[in-house]
Amino acid sequence: MSTIIFHYLHPLADKPKSGSELRPVRMLEAFRQTGVEVIPIVGTSDQRKPAIANVLNDIDRGRTIDAIYSECVTTPTMLSDPGHRPTQPLLEPSFFRTLGKAGVRRGLFYRDVYWRFPIYRDNLPLWKRTPAIAAYHADLAWYRRYLDVVFLPSLMMAKAVPGAERFPATVALPPGSEWQPSTAAASNDDTAQDVATQNEAPSDQLRVLYVGAARPPLYDITHLLDAVRNTPQLRLRVCCPEADGDWVRSTAGYATGRVELHHIGADELPPHYAWAEIASVSFAPHDYRDFAMPLKLFEAIGAGLPIVASAPSSVAQLVEDESLGWTHTGVNTLAPLLQRLATNRDEIERVTTTVEEASERHTWEARAITALEALGLTIAPS
To answer: Is residue 36 scored above 60 in pLDDT?
Structure first.
């Protein structure tokens, strides 16, 4: 049996509230599902330090460890503890260097480059921003030196990462899905039925679902709401954080009465996916969104929903490459597209079949297998 280390800079969330909290939980579960032995090293630096020492002692005594898979967080490694003070700045670089000397293959998922965009500068004062950016660059320096593989949400993101061309290898590793079409369709308890049927759209209205943050500039769904305003055949259900609800209510699309708002947790989403006919991953243009691969995209795929995506983007490229739905370039093309789909349910049914067949390629276990293979391990799907 192969043995890997699963490394994460925070404690794992018992009840994840965001995609960034959910991903490491699901990846750890997925690695275990593949059948490899997993040694978790997670938590604050004070929690990781003794776990690291134990692993290195085991290696010194002859234990074979094949690889390490690490998930970084949105803050720099040395500032990842509560309080964001660099109490143990060399803990991870030293650990990964030592693992390399022991012949352990080293991979890390690099989550985000939000810090490279003006919105980061605008939201953080100079006295905080300056040391943080220096720490981000310090991370990239030891990644280039002590990693064998850098995993990215999409390969398009590499263009925004300084020095990415000097990474030994880069591999796309977007989120996965824990749902399957049959799972979403089987949400038939009383609560699920209430959610799925409340404000039920007339049969001639196309049921569109949007899940996620809904506030400009990064999550600007204005053109989707405008399409609802201009297309009476649409009914849109928006599942977003409560903090974004006021912005949605202020739009002309909401005023049509054909936009529903729901503020719910991740565990309450399946009946909403069961209600929908298609899912929207459409945003106003933003450089940051070009390479993003949101969790909600793969949850929708896992639920068997065709995707409507804005182009150009990594999401649109996936949708086009795998025939998972339709792409558009803005409100002037989105509204006619949705209007056509509202009157052509046969086309939606055909694409739904394609998405259901593709969903098995986009599970969390499939992502774990991709990571393991990139790190030199051969794993048969369960």
So the answer is: yes
